[in-house]
Design goal:
73 residues, mainly alpha, globular
Length: 73
């Protein structure tokens, strides 16, 4: 699956809006990332860019992902 960073963000927003009381935004980002780019998900989890447990990290995570978005499947 090839998706752009903007398509990733759209999917994150759609998923979050479909489940607003189930997941925080940071959780949604990481869950969607796991679906579309599992290798990057694992990398993010191992360094200080994981926003799953901390919505305060969302901007940092998204900035890093945007810079490195080269996903090709």
């Amino acid at each position: 699956m090839n998706i752009t960073f903007q398509q990733f963000l759209k999917r994150v927003d759609e998923t979050y809006n479909d489940h607003p009381f189930t997941f925080r935004y940071g959780q949604t980002i990481m869950n969607v990332l796991h679906q579309v780019w599992p290798e990057k998900y694992k990398e993010i989890m191992q360094i200080n860019y994981d926003c799953f447990y901390d919505d305060g990290m969302v901007r940092i995570t998204l900035d890093k992902l945007e810079k490195e978005w080269t996903h090709k499947d």
